[in-house]
Amino acid sequence: MSRLESFRRRLNAQIDGINWAIENIGETEGENTNAIQGDILEMGLGNGRTYDHLREYANRRIWVIDRVLQCHPSCVPPKADFLQGEADDMLVQMAQRGTQIAFTHYEFGIGVSDVDSAEATRLAPLIKAVMAPQGLVVSQQKMPVMTQIDGPPTVDPDRYFFYRNA
Ligand SMILES: C[S@@+](CC[C@H](N)C(=O)[O-])C[C@H]1O[C@@H](n2cnc3c(N)ncnc32)[C@H](O)[C@@H]1O
Q1: If exposure means fewest CB atoms within 10 Å of the residue's CB, which of 75, 140, 160, 163 is most exposed?
Q2: Residues 155, 13: contact at Cβ < 8 Å?
Q3: Pfam families, from UniProt (predicted)?
Q4: Which of the listed residues 62, 66, 123 should we mutate to test ligand 1's pocket, taking the one with most ligand atoms within 8 A of CB?
Q5: What kind of fold does domain 3-26+35-164 have according to CATH?
């Protein structure tokens, strides 16, 4: 597979995975008692592409963690929702404040599999600590402490990973 094809596969996985999670946590407004309560957490603002997709389609507060603010100018999150710093510290602070997350999208990583997977393994219990019961995690890396579930059938199960905080 060429790098270009791999890039397309990542974008498709992100769009389909994020849409799937938004649909599965449900709408909190109205009569839907099955909706998973809580906010959304975007881990890795980067250029802001996935954040922009989230804010376009999800009707919830979106917290964003990144150590730097270097996104496209049109994608700067509201100051109150941007948690700038190391993820470990930001997640501990969120847990202490009692923030509850219905859906986390995780896209940290530098493309070096050992390093990226060690970081995700370290952060997984801290992410779990802010997740609502039954909350969903859509992740570029494996998250060993949560229950892996099937995502949308259009996403290659080796490309993106889907978890429920069961
Ligand atoms: C691949 S980019 C995210 C791309 C983004 N989702 C998009 O669609 O444009 C990863 C981002 O995660 C941030 N990051 C990686 N590890 C981090 C950590 N441990 N704490 C805070 N930010 C981190 C980096 O600064 C970088 O901006």
Answers
A1: 75
A2: yes
A3: Methyltransf_17 (PF12692)
A4: 66
A5: Rossmann fold (3.40.50)
